[in-house]
Design a protein that fits this description.
The chain has helices spanning 5-11, 22-30, 32-47, 55-84. It is mainly alpha-helical and 88 residues long. It is flat and about 60 Å long. It starts with a helix and ends with a helix.
Length: 88
């Protein structure tokens, strides 16, 4: 029986064993409003999994969806402004 421990280093890529770069962390921080809005939407949807949605639950889900759309719109507008140099 051969030992594959010595071959493990050749099989495992070093790129996946690293920490996020500063650019990747900046990108995550830039997208954080969208991430938080999606988490809020997911929380609102999870509440309604085990019971029928009340009017209050439906309102909460609608508000959360609007927040996701607003955050995505803001992120897209920021990216477009960065590309065009702010001349929109």
């Amino acid at each position: 029986m051969s030992n594959i421990a010595a071959l493990q280093a050749a099989v495992t890529a070093d790129e996946f064993d690293r920490e996020p770069t500063a650019a990747e962390l900046d990108a995550i921080e830039h997208e954080m409003p969208v991430i938080l809005a999606r988490v809020e939407l997911l929380d609102a949807q999870i509440v309604t999994l085990d019971r029928p949605a009340t009017e209050l639950d439906q309102r909460r889900i609608r508000r959360a969806r609007r927040r996701v759309l607003a955050a995505r719109r803001a992120l897209t507008n920021q990216a477009a402004a960065a590309v065009t140099g702010g001349a929109a």
